[in-house]
Request: fold
Amino acid sequence: MEIAFKAVSFNPLNYFMSRIVDRLIFYAILGIFVISCQSNTTKTKVDTAGTQLLAKEIVNTQPTQKAAKEHPGKAVYAKYCLVCHQANGSGVPGMYPPLSNGSWVGKDPKELVGILTKGLSGKVEVNNEVYKSAMPAQAQLTNEEIANVLSYVRSDFGNNFGSVDVEVVKKIRSAK
Ligand code: HEC
Reply:
């Protein structure tokens, strides 16, 4: 009985030592935690700065690339021609003739301006296919829009014809 008592007897020195060690371990862990948090924040800050730089680069380069790529006649085409002649200028067999290779878009600008301002009907043969449909006049287009859209169709869809100047359109239009 007495021996057992001794074994669990209270030793003040041991008690304080163990408390100090506990404290030290606690502060050490706390310190590591705080340091790791701070280094994470700096890392995030650097990452954010990097992402912002990258985003700026993308924003800075994209519009210039787009502006350089997009033909001014493309928007006119999308609004007034695409519905029939299709996005790739293929047209629709038996209904709308193509504007791609072998079509009339390489013809004299005079004729092309006439098609746009007066429309076209009757027999139209493109790539050995006959169309007996009718294209409504696009007379609402300005001279500039006509010049742009004709220049666009003459340079896209596999075509490689010269652009049509707005002054030429103006002349042709006022002559008729
Ligand atoms: C409502 C449908 C429609 C729209 C919109 C339309 N076209 Fe057409 N286009 C036709 C049809 C149909 C023909 C053939 C007419 C025929 O069969 O007599 C044609 C013929 C042509 C031709 C001559 C034939 C060829 O394939 O080369 C050209 C060039 C042309 N269109 C350009 C344009 C352009 C440019 C626009 C837009 C500004 C446009 N068209 C808008 C239906 C359309």
